[in-house]
Automatic annotation (TrEMBL):
Location(s), subcellular: Membrane
The keyword Transmembrane is assigned to this record: yes
Presence of keyword Ubl conjugation: no
Name of this protein: Mechanosensitive ion channel family protein
Matches recorded under InterPro entries: LSM_dom_sf (IPR010920), MscS_beta-dom_sf (IPR023408), MscS_channel_2nd (IPR006685)
Predominant location category: membrane
One Pfam family per UniProt: MS_channel_2nd
Keywords: Membrane, Transmembrane, Transmembrane helix
Family annotation (PANTHER family): INNER MEMBRANE PROTEIN, YNAI-RELATED MECHANOSENSITIVE ION CHANNEL
Domain Mechanosensitive ion channel MscS: 176-242
Length: 352
């Protein structure tokens, strides 16, 4: 048996040992967390690749010390092990970031009605998670490339140069860096959160997803509006749920001057108080303007969120219209006209 055959068998045996060790560790870990798998099972799934790679590195390192190799092969193997170690550390950091995110978000639920605090933490955590994931990957890739002499020298010369190539690269990376910084700023200041009701570019919808470069807004008719992340840091927009989801709905009525405001106010109050959409806080009926032929009446009623406020406004309109048609027909808008009959001449009146 030749020396290379023995070396290959030793390394193959090391890989088999690493695989068997991983299977044993996995089975033992699954039995340990069998009664508490809510968090630990996902933890094992996220660290599966990193543990496998770590065992392979250890096994190959032990095998390389047991088998004498020429210097070129030894140097290549050590370089490969170094790259594998950097990849393993990168995977572990990313797994730790995922675990931190999952552990942090377990305390918050978005499927409850009062989810303001949950939306705040979910938005902040997801943005920081994406930014951190990109940074970890970038650092790991940079560390791996710096172990190669040619790439390291090229990178150093590129960073040291101030020529046209550096300018082009800087301009090319400007949108990426702007979105990255905007993501960090958005996570800290939180002008928007997941499930916020916003008006962007004249469209009303809810924030569905926030990525590292863009925001997905789910429009009320199920369309999706894709907006760059830095848009929310540079352009004014409306956020209806910034600090509280409660909104005041507005209903405008235009009625005739014969309307009875006390009776209309009593009926509107009865409608609002009987509605399950009203949150019990705000109700007002006021005459806000006089027009040439109608009276402008404004009804204010509050609801717990934007959707319920919209439905409450529609309900108030429908029921007040039915009330006016049945109880105050004279209050419906109408156009008045005075018709004057022209008098006949005196001589015609005498002949008549």
């Amino acid at each position: 048996m030749t020396r290379w055959t023995e070396t290959a068998l030793v390394f193959a045996l090391a890989l088999v040992v690493a695989w068997l060790a991983f299977m044993v560790i996995q089975r033992v870990a699954l039995r340990v967390v069998a009664h508490n798998g809510g968090f630990w099972r996902p933890l094992l799934a996220r660290t599966r690749g990193a543990v496998q790679l770590a065992l392979i590195i250890v096994a190959v390192s032990v095998a390389s010390n047991a088998v004498p190799l020429p210097w070129p092969e030894t140097a290549l193997l050590r370089h490969l092990l170094l790259l594998a170690f950097i990849a393993c550390v990168t995977m572990m950091f990313r797994a730790a970031l995922d675990i931190w995110m999952a552990l942090h978000l377990r305390r918050f639920r978005l499927d409850v009605e009062d989810n303001l605090i949950a939306r705040k933490h979910v938005t902040q955590t997801r943005i920081l998670h994406r930014v951190g994931d990109v940074l970890i990957f970038a650092i790991g890739l940079s560390a791996a490339l710096m172990t190669i002499d040619g790439v390291r020298q090229y990178g150093v010369s590129l960073l040291a140069s101030a020529g046209a190539a550096g300018i082009v690269v800087g301009l090319a990376l400007q949108p990426v860096l702007r979105n990255l910084l905007a993501g960090i700023q958005l996570a800290l200041t939180q002008p928007i959160r997941i499930d916020d009701a916003v008006i962007v570019e004249g469209e009303w919808g809810n924030v569905e997803e926030i990525t590292a470069t863009y925001v997905v807004v789910r429009i009320w008719d199920k369309r999706r509006l894709i907006v760059p992340l830095n848009y929310f840091m540079e352009t004014p927009f409306q956020n209806w749920t910034r600090s509280d989801a409660t909104l005041i709905g507005v209903v405008m009525l235009y009625v005739d001057y014969d309307v009875s405001i006390p009776d209309l106010r009593a009926e509107a109050e009865r409608i609002v108080r009987a509605s399950p959409l009203w949150n019990g806080e705000t109700f007002v009926l006021q005459v806000t303007d006089f027009r040439e032929s109608v009276v402008e009446v404004r009804v204010l009623a509050s609801a717990r969120n934007a959707g319920r406020a919209f439905d409450l406004r529609c309900e108030i309109r429908e029921r007040l219209l039915a009330y006016l048609q049945s109880e105050q027909k004279a209050a419906l808008p109408r156009t008045r006209a005075t018709v004057e009959t022209e008098k006949a001449p005196a001589f015609l009146q005498a002949d008549g």
